[in-house]
Design goal:
By secondary structure, the chain is an alpha+beta fold. The chain has a domain of 76 residues. It is built from 18 helices and 18 strands. Strands 9, 10, 11, 12, 13, 14, 15, 16, 17 and 18 form a ten-stranded mixed β-sheet that branches. A three-stranded antiparallel β-sheet has the order 3-4-5. Strands 6-7-8 form a three-stranded mixed β-sheet. Helix 9 packs across helix 11, helix 13 runs parallel beside helix 14 and helix 15 crosses helix 16. The longest helix has 15 residues.
Length: 637
C-alpha cells in the first residue's frame, strides 16, 4: 500500500500514510542507477525532460530513496490490535476541520485581541489625509487606571459618591471591564451605567442653548449603582471621552440589522441533512497512518464525488427534503474530514530504475528478488444495490508476493474473521512462500514500503532471521520511501482492479476467481485463501532472538523508521544501514541464544466481528442469493 497520506487537493481521495522529513546522505543519482540498468543515460535524460514539468524535475543528485521515514504505524503494538473494534477507537478525537483559516494565529488578529484586552499592541498609523495603512505600525501603550476623584465638590455633595470606591474596588472594575468583556459587552456596560436626562435649567434664556441633554454616570458597589462624576467614571474604566461620546451617540444596546420576518433557516437545515447523510455512511480509518491522521474514508463504493453527490441527492429527495449544491456538499465533506477511499500509489519523481542492480542480479541467477505489498482493502458483499451504501461489510485483505525473475505472483487472501493486519500475519505469508519456492541457497532480496505495522518491525525481523538460520541463506530487506514505492507488485493489484470492475461479489471467496482471471499469460496468479490456522505467532518474546531492532537506545539515536536496509545472516546476527551508501553495521543489540524455535499458531479459532457489522450483514441478506446466506449467518460475533 502507499505510504503517504496528505490531505491537500492532490490527495483528497488517496489512502496513504504520512512521512517525516529527515536529514540523510543521498543514495544513488539518476545517472548511476540508469547506467547500472544498462540504459543509455542521454536518451533517458531526454525522456525525463520531455515527460516532466519544470516544477517536477529533480535536482542533479536527487536520491532514488529519500530519507523520509514511513512511521505511520510506529508506536502501535502491532500484535495486540483490537479485532472487535471496527472503528479503532475514537477516531473523531483531535480531528481538525480542513480549509478553514485559523485567524487566532494571524498577527493582525492577535493585535486586535491585545487592543480589546487593554494590553500593549501595534496600532495602525494614520496619515495626513486621514487614511490608515497597515504597512506602518506604532507601539501603543496598555490601558491603565486613572487617578481617583479628588474634587471637593464631590466630597461635599450629597448626590455623588466617588469617595465610596476604594482603590482595590476600582482595580476590580477596571480589570473586569478590560479582561472579561469584548467590545460589544464594553459598549453595553457603559450605556447601561449612564443615564441621559433633559437639562434641569437653561443657561441661555430664550432656548438658545446647544445642550440638549445631561449625562449622569454610575459605578456599581455591592450590586447597587452609585452616582459618580464623569472624571471618576472615565478614570476607573480607563476609557477616553471621545470613546464615551461615540458609544453614547448610538445608545441602542441591542441594535440589530433591519430585516423582514424571521431568519431563513432553510440553509442550515439543508446542511444538517447533508451531514446526517455522511454520518450514516460506513467509513474506514486510514490503514497505515492511524496514529498521524484521523481522516476517515468511505468504503470503496463511490468512485467520484459527483457519484456520491448523486446518491445524496436521490436519498434526500426521496425523504422530501431540499439538497445543498454540489460545492456546498464538497465543502461539508472536507469539514467533516472525510475522503473517498481511492488507493493511490506513489509515483517515482526522478526515475523508475531504483532496483536495477538487484533486478540484473536476479536475471543472472545470483539472487532472488521479491517485491511485497498489501492491496487496497476489499469488502464483501460488493453489490450495486443502494441498500449496501449504508451498511458495514466484511473486510477482505490481499497480501501479494511478486518474484522479479519469474514474474510469478502469489495472492494471499483472507477476511477479517480469519486474521488481522498484524506483523505475524504478513511474516507467515512471506516465510511460507520462501520455504515453498526457494531451496537453492541463493541470497534473497525483499523490497517493500516502510510501514512498521507490516514490514519494518521486530516480529518480521525475527521471522526472517529464524528462516535465514534454518535455510542457511542471507536475506536482505530494502525499504522504499515516499515517491519511490511504485513496484512491480502494483501491476498485480492493477490487473485485479481492472478485472473487478463491474463485478458482483457475494462471498469473500469470490475474489479467488477474480485474481485467477486477472492474468492468463504467462500463467495465472497463484491464489491462496487463508484461514486462521494458517498463521504463525512470531510475537512470542521467549522465541525472539532480538526483542528490538532499533539501532539506538537513547533520545536522539536512530529509530526503527530510520533503517533503510536489514540483512539477516545465517550466524544469527542482523546488520543494518541507515542509508544505501553507508557500510553494513551490526545491530547494537545482544541476540538471545536459542537452540530450536517452534512458533505456535497465532489464532485458536475464528475472530469475532463487531455486533453492528454482523447486524448490517444480516440486513443485507435480502439482496444476497439464498445459497450464500449461511456463510454470513455463521460469522462469529
Amino acid at each position: 500500500m502507499s505510504g503517504s497520506d496528505t490531505e491537500d487537493d492532490s490527495s483528497d481521495c488517496s489512502y496513504q500514510g504520512t512521512t517525516e522529513d529527515e536529514d540523510s546522505d543521498p543514495i544513488f543519482s539518476i545517472q548511476e542507477v540508469v547506467q547500472a540498468a544498462g540504459v543509455d543515460f542521454g536518451n533517458f535524460t531526454n525522456l525525463v525532460e520531455y515527460g516532466t514539468t519544470e516544477s517536477e524535475q529533480a535536482p542533479p543528485n536527487t536520491p532514488c530513496t529519500t530519507p523520509q521515514a514511513e512511521n505511520s504505524c510506529s508506536g502501535t503494538d502491532v500484535e495486540n490490535l483490537d479485532p472487535g473494534n471496527v472503528f479503532h477507537g475514537d477516531l473523531t478525537l483531535g480531528r481538525k476541520r480542513l480549509r478553514k483559516p485559523d485567524k487566532q494565529g494571524w498577527t493582525v488578529e492577535q493585535q486586535k485581541m491585545r487592543r480589546m484586552k487593554g494590553d500593549a499592541y501595534l496600532g495602525v498609523v494614520r496619515t495626513k489625509n486621514n487614511s490608515s495603512t497597515s504597512a506602518i505600525r506604532k507601539q501603543r501603550p496598555p490601558r491603565s487606571i486613572g487617578q481617583t476623584c479628588e474634587s471637593s465638590k464631590c466630597k461635599k455633595g450629597q448626590t455623588r459618591h466617588c469617595q465610596k470606591f476604594s482603590e482595590s474596588r476600582r482595580l476590580y472594575l477596571f480589570h473586569n471591564f478590560w479582561k472579561e468583556m469584548d467590545w460589544g459587552q464594553k459598549r453595553a456596560y457603559v450605556i447601561s451605567h449612564v443615564d441621559k436626562i433633559s437639562p434641569k435649567r437653561e443657561v441661555k434664556k430664550g432656548g438658545g442653548s446647544r445642550r440638549s441633554n445631561t449625562y449622569i454616570f454610575y459605578l456599581k458597589l455591592d450590586g447597587e449603582k452609585h452616582q459618580v462624576c464623569k472624571s471618576m467614571f472615565l478614570n476607573t474604566l480607563g476609557i477616553r471621552e471621545k470613546q464615551l461620546r461615540c458609544w453614547l451617540k448610538n445608545d441602542q444596546v441591542d441594535r440589530t440589522t433591519r430585516r423582514k420576518g424571521p431568519y431563513n433557516n432553510i440553509g442550515i437545515d439543508k446542511s444538517q441533512t447533508a451531514r446526517e447523510f455522511l454520518d450514516q455512511m460506513p467509513k474506514l480509518p486510514s490503514h497505515y497512518c492511524r496514529k498521524s491522521t484521523a481522516k476517515l474514508y468511505l468504503e470503496p463504493i463511490f468512485t467520484s464525488k459527483s457519484q456520491l453527490y448523486s446518491e445524496y441527492s436521490a436519498h434526500t429527495k426521496h425523504r422530501e427534503k431540499q439538497v445543498v449544491s454540489m460545492p456546498k456538499f464538497i465543502s461539508i465533506l472536507h469539514d467533516m474530514s472525510i475522503g473517498l477511499y481511492k488507493p493511490k500509489k506513489d509515483k517515482c519523481d526522478t526515475c523508475c530504475a531504483y532496483e536495477a542492480t538487484d533486478k540484473r542480479g536476479a536475471a543472472e541467477g545470483n539472487c532472488h528478488v521479491l517485491v511485497i505489498d498489501v492491496q487496497a482493502v476489499k469488502i464483501a458483499p460488493l453489490l450495486n444495490a443502494s441498500a449496501c451504501y449504508y451498511k458495514t461489510k466484511l473486510v477482505v485483505h490481499n497480501f501479494t508476493i511478486y518474484d522479479l525473475k519469474s514474474n510469478n505472483a502469489r495472492c494471499c487472501l483472507w477476511d477479517e474473521s480469519e486474521g488481522e493486519l498484524v506483523a505475524s500475519v504478513f511474516a507467515t505469508c512471506l516465510v511460507k512462500y520462501i520455504e515453498d519456492k526457494f531451496t537453492d541457497g541463493l541470497p534473497i532480496v525483499i523490497y517493500s514500503d516502510g510501514c512498521t505495522n507490516q514490514n519494518r518491525n521486530a516480529m518480521m525481523s525475527n521471522a526472517l532471521l529464524d528462516l535465514s538460520i534454518k535455510m542457511n541463506i542471507s536475506i536482505t530487506q530494502k525499504f522504499l520511501e515516499k515517491g519511490h514505492t511504485q513496484m512491480e507488485v502494483d501491476s498485480v493489484h492493477s490487473a485485479i482492479e481492472c478485472k473487478l470492475k463491474n463485478k458482483v461479489i457475494y462471498l469473500p471467496t469470490d475474489y479467488i476467481q477474480v485474481c485467477l482471471d486477472a492474468r492468463t499469460r504467462p500463467s495465472p496468479y497463484e491464489v491462496l485463501y487463508l484461514n486462521h490456522s494458517y498463521f504463525v505467532n512470531y510475537s512470542c518474546k521467549d522465541l525472539q532472538r532480538y526483542l528490538s531492532i532499533r539501532p539506538g537506545s537513547k533520545t536522539g539515536d536512530p529509530c526503527v523508521t530510520d533503517i533503510r536496509q536489514l540483512n539477516y545472516k545465517p550466524d544469527g546476527t542482523i546488520e543494518y544501514k541507515l542509508n544505501y551508501r553507508s557500510v553494513w553495521m551490526t545491530l547494537p543489540r545482544n541476540p538471545i541464544l536459542l537452540q530450536e524455535t517452534f512458533f505456535p499458531q497465532l489464532y485458536d479459532s475464528r475472530l469475532k466481528i463487531p455486533k453492528r457489522k454482523y447486524d448490517d450483514l444480516q440486513d443485507l441478506l435480502d439482496v444476497i442469493p439464498q445459497q450464500f446466506h449461511q456463510f454470513y449467518i455463521n460469522l462469529p460475533n
